[in-house]
Amino acid sequence: MQIPQIGCYDFHLEAKTDLHLPEYKGSTFRGGFGITLRRIVCALKRETCDECMLRSKCIYAYVFDTSPPAESDRLRNHRNIPQPFILEPPGETTMHYPPGRDLMFSFVLVGKALEYVPYFIFTVEEMGKAGIGKGRGLFILKKVTSLSAEGPVPVFDGKDRKLFPENNDLQRVIEKKVDDLINAERIVLTFHTPTRIVSDDRFVSAPEFHHIIRSLSRRVSNLLYFHCAMEAPWDFKELIEKAEKVRVVNSRLEWNDWERYSKRQDTRMKMGGFTGTMICEGDFASSALVLALGELLHVGKNASFGLGKYEVQVQ
Question: What is the pTM of this model?
């Protein structure tokens, strides 16, 4: 089984001044990260990346303004492709963090993006100095750890500003999940953050299992192709045919509306999606790998904000 390179990094912060953040913090952290990364790495200080002569070699353009390579034969008519990172914001709904209060958010990095871990760390440090949220509250990056089969391992010590050799191999974690799913007859899907899946040009509020698999397969296959130099190791037609036979036996999903402000478009954007649980019965052997990868890579639109985060458990 060929497993793509994926790294999961937890960024442990401490509020230096009062932090005032929204209930869902994905847009705030992602926006601050993008602005700070651009300030750090942009050499020509252009307003857009489109005509920049350095675009093909620029870390910001690759990570944050991701477009298909000129030679690509996939999605070449699309302006954007899936970004090689997912920002998972703090899970709690706390809105005020007084000085000394800890909080944590995570980055999931895919393929080539793993080469840029030091840039992600330095950018988050600079974010803390510039401030985020209402009133531009400041924070300190205390440490960074990564997920491994053995548990969290150190990546960066903020006190000594020391980088450790990385151990971000999640292959055994993914393989174990796949093995569990191959033999499963019933699973529980829990959607922790608003999940935005489109079918027939409309957002789905009560999805069937095949809606999840269709969306997952497209997203994951594009991430593998553009960022891991891999073709998806499944047959799409067979995958969907098997997924359509899986039954939803219980669904407790509800739609949650959420808005974010887009500085680039100078407008507030609706970002609602469904959360909750659905229980499915059937044969999951064909969809086991894509389900296991999707736990890390999320499903649906706007995943880089942390949307579409789910957990799959065998019942």
Answer: 0.91
274 touches 253 (CB < 8 A): yes
Q: Is 214 left (phi over 0), alpha (psi -120 to 50) or beta?
A: alpha
- Smallest CA-to-CA distance from 124 within 62, 40, 38, 33 is with 33
Question: Is the pLDDT confidence value at 67 over 90?
Answer: no
Q: Which residues on adjacent β-strands are paired with residue 187? A: 280, 314
How many residues can be counted in the chain?
A: 315
For 68-119, the pLDDT digits (tens) are 766 556 655 555 689 999 999 998 999 999 999 999 999 999 999 999 999 9
pLDDT digits (tens, 9 = 90+) for 181-190: 999 999 999 9
Where are the domain boundaries for CATH 3.30.70.1900 in the chain?
171-314
Q: List, in order, residues 6 or more apart from 32 with CB less than 8 Å away.
A: 127, 130, 132
Q: Which of 6, 2, 10, 292 is nearest to 170 (CA)?
A: 6
Residues 143-164, mean pLDDT to the nearest whole number: 92
- CATH for the stretch 171-314: 3.30.70.1900
How many CB atoms neighbour CB 62 within 10 A? 22
Q: What is 6-163's CATH topology?
A: Alpha-Beta Plaits (3.30.70)
Q: Are 154 and 143 in contact (CB under 8 A)?
A: yes
How many whole angstroms separate alpha carbon 149 and alpha carbon 16?
Answer: 33
Q: How far apart are CA 187 and CA 292, in angstroms?
A: 12
SS3 226: helix
Q: Where are the domain boundaries for CATH 3.30.70.1890 in the chain? A: 6-163
**% helix, strand, coil for the chain, step of 5:** 30, 30, 40
Residue 107 and residue 117: Cα distance in Å, rounded?
Answer: 10
Res 128: pLDDT: 97
Q: Report whether 103 contacts 15 (CB < 8 A).
A: yes
Contact between 255 and 244 under an 8 Å Cβ cutoff? The reply is: no
